[in-house]
Specification:
This protein is mainly alpha-helical. The protein has 2 domains: about 45 residues; about 35 residues. Helix content is about 80%, strand content about 0%. The chain has 3 helices and no strands. Helix 1 packs across helix 2. The protein is elongated, with a radius of gyration of 24 Å.
Amino acid sequence: MRGGDREAEMVAMEERLGGFDAAHTAARWHGLLLRGELAVLELSGNGAGILAAANTVISTFLLVFVAEWGDKSFFSTIEPYGD
């Protein structure tokens, strides 16, 4: 899909939803697209963004793993007393 077609589709959708006028809406969507492209470029630039993303993923995994391990240990401890 060409950029102009996408922009026209976004303007039409915004008008259907009762949004702003067409010129303001097109500028707003264009700004959002540019910000998204800049965010992608920052992540793929020097590798620091990828390292930060990997660090977040690893930290999240470890936190969830430890929490689930704690739940398993807790249920294993109270299971014999359930009957």
